[in-house]
Amino acid sequence: MPSGNTHKISEEDRNRLRAELDPETYHIVCEAGTERAFSGKYWDCKVPGMYLCVVCREPLFDSETKYDSGSGWPSYYQPVADDAVIEVKDTSHGMVRTEVVCGNCDAHLGHVFEDGPPPTGLRYCINSASVDLLER
After folding, report:
1. Which of 85, 125, 129, 133 is catalytic?
2. Prediction pTM value
């Protein structure tokens, strides 16, 4: 797992995204921000579909792996593919966590924790602002 700030979003892409995205979404995907619990558009969404990266549109999570973790953020027990997301050691805010970024464009998505349900035991806690739902 990579450690430290490995974000590879170029300055050119950051400028483009600053113009295309609303300020909260930009802060989340480019500056590793987070939305308030229970405030995102997908935390309690039950619509079937595929969750795509808001920056590059690559598939990240299928609604079939989404579950109610009680955390207030959309939670999934696995990504659609092993390379869909990259895990990065996060030592910000005086704690050690595992950040999750898009495997294609490196946009910040959220964090993964080892308190999820079977079959993986993982909880990918993802910001609603970092994904778009492509409904089935």
Report:
1. 125
2. 0.90
